[in-house]
Specification:
heterodimer; A: mainly beta; 10 strands; about 0% helix; B: mainly beta; 6-stranded mixed beta sheet
């Protein structure tokens, strides 16, 4: 498809179970982001992948959260031993190019998927 | 600390009643300011990127402007279908070596017919 694709769109899981959320970015986009949006809250940064560079994991809230990006394309966000406070919408985004210290950035806008609504019961 | 603040939190307008949304930012070395629209149950939809003070961009009834401290999203003669949450975001400061976006908490706009 032309846009960022996330699956599943909804996930209900029991407390303590592990979950995997998938993101398929726009073809050719080198940067991929995961954000979390809790009800009525802003977007909380989780992790960012840029090409072959080491990911920026500074937003992951605990060691129960991990993410990988295989082959520079599809990404999976894994949450182990889920807790009720993990309930939120998990959003993935991708962008064409970024320049961490670029003087004249361009094509840096991020395009978001529809999100995965995670409910931990 | 890099920061983005949006105001008002919520705004109700009558159809045709023009207004502006504000996004104030504090970041060392601005590398773009981004506006998004988010409808309930959906991911944010990209609207505009502004890179330098004085820049303006338009799309239908929306116009975004940028100064050195803030951005405005002007909505002219809004329609009910413009009802949504409008988000702005900036990348972390240029010296951070990373490109994660900092989002404001958004302005919830409701346009009444």
């Amino acid at each position: 498809g032309a846009g960022v694709s996330q699956s599943p769109s909804n996930k209900v899981t029991e407390k303590g179970k592990d979950v995997e959320l998938r993101c398929d970015p726009i073809s050719g986009h080198t940067a991929l982001y995961w954000y979390r949006q809790s009800l009525g809250q802003g977007l909380e940064f989780l992790i960012y992948f840029q090409g072959n560079s080491a990911p920026d994991k500074s937003g992951l809230p605990s060691d129960r959260f991990s993410a990988e990006r295989t082959g520079g394309s599809v990404s999976t966000l894994t949450i182990q031993r889920t807790q009720q406070e993990d309930s939120a919408v998990y959003l993935c985004a991708s962008s064409l190019s970024v320049s961490p210290r670029g003087v004249n950035p361009s094509n840096t806008e991020a395009f978001f998927g529809q999100g995965t609504r995670l409910t931990v019961v | 600390e890099d920061q983005v603040t949006q105001s008002p939190e919520a705004l109700r307008l009558q159809e045709g009643e023009s207004s502006s949304l504000n996004c104030s930012y504090t970041v060392s070395g601005l590398r773009g300011l981004f506006w998004y629209r988010q409808d309930p149950g959906k991911g944010p939809e990209f609207l505009f990127t502004l890179y330098s003070a004085g820049e303006e961009k338009e799309k239908e009834r929306l116009k975004a402007t940028l100064t050195k401290k803030e951005s405005f999203l002007h909505i002219t003669a809004p329609k009910p279908e413009d009802s949504a949450t409008y988000l702005c975001a900036v990348p972390e400061g240029a010296t951070s070596g990373t490109y994660k976006y900092i989002f404001g908490t958004g302005t919830r706009l409701k346009v009444l017919a």
